Amino acid sequence: MFNRLLIARTDRLGDVLLTTPVSRVLREAFPQAHVAWLVQSYTAPLLEHNPDVDQVLVDPGGPVDSLIARLRQERFDAAVVAHPRGRVAWALWRAGIPLRIGPASKVYSLLFNRRIWQHRSEGKKHEADYNLDLLAPLGIPFQRAETRFVLIPDEKAWARQFLESMRITFRKPVVCLHPGSGGSSDRWPLSHFMELGDQLQEAGYDVVVTGGPGENYQNIMIDQMRRIPVFVAAGSVSIRQLASILSSANLMVSNSTGPLHIAVAQGVPTVAVYSSIPACHPIRWGPYPSYVEGDGRHAVFMPSDGDVSSVSADEVFKECRRLLGVIPAKAGVENWIPANSMRE
Known about the structure:
By secondary structure, this protein is of the alpha/beta class. It is 32% helix and 15% strand.
């Protein structure tokens, strides 16, 4: 029996969200256990109000001794390291955590005393599945669970008021376009997003364009689009406010990026364009668990030639209409790519 458990994931938004199924499975297996997370400060808000999370620790950076002291103070029974880094592996070992579980692919994996062989860069399975595999040393058989990002009613009410103040009436379906990728993958060209935005608005949808820090496309889009959408200025809202805005949408279109997984966790259908490079492949990073289970709730485009610009705005528009219920599912089924195939 484990009383105090730690999940360590000190990288980016989408990575943390794709590790939340680990919390859900741990809560089910050990309902009385205290489940804590170790994350970076900017991803900590993703875990607020999550019933599967009892505590969030933030790695302050700087000298590792302060992190070691904090972990030792918490007296964890076991730690699951979903994103191995030498700093974290060293801190867990020095803190004397009895059971330290992590991937076996790094030199510093020797600091884990339960190692699972994984070669994630090969992209042979989904990132969330890789994370869940790490629970085997705790006696937990593999089982999938949905990602979780919990918004409270006040946050959703704020998003509605915010969008209404920007002329969104909610009398028409709302489609969010997120042209950035945070540098994590190849990007579908901005020109394609602009063409799609015009098509959606001309078909009677409201369009909201979102962006992260450094992803400000507003001036270019205003100059070149036939119809001007609503813009949420890049970096002007918090992560939780962005999630609230996305939760208000009927559909999101994006690249492979953290906000895509935020939308998925809010139950919003998505259309995304992916690179076919193994490390960026939707087999590893697609909407979870929808993509690996092939249920068709989300749509993925992945050109076999690796050129994301070869995916046309017309193709994506057609799939948007399918997911919004305007045309039958059969008309867009060729664009849904099961986990074991590619669109030629």
